[in-house]
Amino acid sequence: MEGRILLIEDDTVNRRILRERFENAGMKVDEAADGQAGLDLANRLLPQVIITSTTLPDMRGTEVAQQLRSVTRTRHIFLMLLADEDQHQERLSGLELGVDDFVASPFDPDEVTLRVRNALRRASSTNLTDPTTGLPAGSLMQEQLRQLVMQDPEGDWALMRFRVTNLGPFREVYGFMAADDLLRGVTRILAEAFSHGASSNDFLGYGGKDDFILITEPQRAEAIEKEVRAQFEEEVGSHYGFMEREQGFIVVDGKQVGLATLRVRSVTPQGEGPFYDIRSLSEALAG
Description:
CATH topology of the largest domain: Alpha-Beta Plaits
Number of helices: 11
CATH architecture of the largest domain: 2-Layer Sandwich
Number of domains: 2
Structural class: alpha/beta
Distance between the termini: 37 Å
Radius of gyration: 20 Å
Order of helices and strands: EHEHEHEHEHHEHHEEHHEEEH
Helix content: 40-55%
Shape: globular
Low-confidence stretches: none
Strand order of the largest sheet: 2-1-3-4-5
Number of strands: 11
């Protein structure tokens, strides 16, 4: 099963045990040994699941949870607490903060793996996150756009769409798994660029049909686009064979098709708005 897990745990034995279980289950694992490093990775990588110990060297696990839940771009992430002490109080504090699951130490690593796997399946089946990119999708993204037009139709925000072009022909030549790898690469590039100077209201989601949706401050839009384009152009060739990379195209049904590119569109209430419903917003974004 695909999935990206972030472990925030200062106990190296616990990290090693959980990493082995998750990797054996086909998941990608990132690690942090303290709360601040974990928060930095969470904002940069946007994993699908975060597991944090309640006792960390620099802060409580509940403080990590509070910060994750207070930021729009990490609010959707499945969050599990590993309680080391005072389990009853930690459980109550976690529930108040919106933590999704709670496991007491000493824990059964197989049980933790099953809980995480079930959480990933539920998120995918209920149309909350995209199974390939791990980003908010479907109803979660629609709700974010709905809040934007209902609460702040003339506000100081920019809505950006990053569309990966020529991915259909790429799928025909290289297959669905290779296309999914390319989309995950774009997700990583966007999340990395998005994390630089991010605000608490920033949002990154997947709109389907090879479209990524970003909400940020207008003054950040140009810099994000520039960084994402540069990194995409640097990396996209690695998804192609040597010959196709050198000639700059692939051949599909006897026709030459260019390599994948990014098409970017950005709208603001001041430029193309104001927007009072999702339809007008979507039409402006479509250009």
